[in-house]
Write the structure tokens for this entry.
Amino acid sequence: MSERTLRGKAAIVGIGQTPYYKHGQSPDSEFKLALMAVVNACSDAGISPHDVDGFASYGNDRSDAGRLAAALGCREFRFSNMFWGGGGGGVCGAVANAAAAVATGMADCVVAFRSLAQGQYARYGRGAPVTSVGGDDAFIFPYGMMSPAQRFAMKITRFMHEHGIKHEALRAISLACYHHAQNNPNAVMRGKPLDEAKYDNSRWIIEPFFHLYDCCLENDGAAAVIVVAADRAKDFPHKPAYMLGAVQGCDHRSAAPVHNMPGYDSSHFCSLAPHLYRMAKMGPKDMQVVQCYENFTGGVLMSLIEHGLVQPEQANEFLVKENLIAPDGRMPLNTSGGNLAECYMHGLELVIEAVHQIRGDAINQLKRNDTAIVIGGPMVTPVSSLILGSEAAL
Amino acid sequence: MSEFYLPEGLPAPSAAPDGLSQPYWDGAREGKLRIQRCRGCGAWQWGPEWVCHRCHSFDLAWEDITGRGRIWSYQRPHHPVHPALNGHGPYIVVLVELPEYGGVRMVGNLLGDPRQEVRIGAPVEAVFEHHKDYSLVQWKLSL
């Protein structure tokens, strides 16, 4: 039996984004944003949207794949896929599902995308405007625990308590993201630099570990990537970013109700990360840049540790801004600004940034750019992560 | 001064849509803390589910338990995310572990001063907050 793997079987050959907006400021509807991102990604790949034959998304994306295929006049529509779960847990999973489709011959040219206009629909940072709640929510909403930040805060409190990690480690993550965004013309927080004093003086969203700048933005926009089989990857104008490894899921019973998951203080990658590195035939030390989804900085911290990129006992010492910034930091993190400072595009902007780094045309470009790890939506269930690489990394 | 820890107007709990948690809410109404225990293997289970995750028995009993636990984790939200909380100020949510019952955990508010220092591991006990149409399990520090 041949080796079962996605390693080297698929590549991202096109990337597309819309302008990014503060929530409520997009002049275009959410579905139009999705169309624009796909058209832009096709243009980048040098193909017509007529050639797209599949769509993969996540986070209960409202832009229906069938409507997209019809609107764009796709000649064939052979793959449609929605990754379960909320938030950005599925960002890497959607890309991996697209890769699996093209690697197995189910489709030839699949778009993984996310469109999100929080200003036109519900904002993630608000509790749902309901008078009654059932299911799992009945056990938390009446206690004033409704937003994503509130759902995750106690995981982070416990993790920091267990490992003795200080808030300054989280601050460094935020500072690095804002630093990178200052050069990025598409970043929502360009022109709004962050320093230690501004971070420390920002208001509490939640004590003890959520200052304002530990929390992601709420934005409007869309982003898309074009995934094809590896044997065609060189037929497109840009340097391909090959899939080296991908995982999705979560740890044992991570979705256990009312916060009863056995591994409580976790981003849910503990049992997944070894599979990721095994498929990629690489280890954490081989990752030249890290794009890690910041719903909240505490989720980044746990994700980095669970992917072996930072050791918990070294976190206070290692997680300082100088180590996390391009081009010379020891572990450049979120080099476009990420969810904190570029745009909360549910992490697809992180995948696009990883592709830019591998192509060599990133705004904050690294000198070593053959591998990139992308980590999606920590603390939700399911989560996902992937490793991309240049041809030299194959 | 309201007799409730948080202002009224927050979403009310319901056993809908499937009735799975009805015995818990009925228990709270009577001032009893009630969780699931598997008749097949004896395991305590929380939150409620239709099947035992250990032995896959569907024969799950509801048992009244003593409300003694210890604080496993906590948060003090400041930013209001619901209109009922506008202008209210910070409050404390705790995750309480119940060591006598397989270490299951429950969520609630920690009664008392919302600005008090919270210590992980502190012993707490369940108290009941009776609203017009439902009752909430809350937690107070044990003396």
Q: What stands out?
A: Residues 34 and 115 of chain A are 5 Å apart (CA to CA). The domain at 10-119+216-393 of chain A is CATH 3.40.47.10 (Peroxisomal Thiolase; Chain A, domain 1).
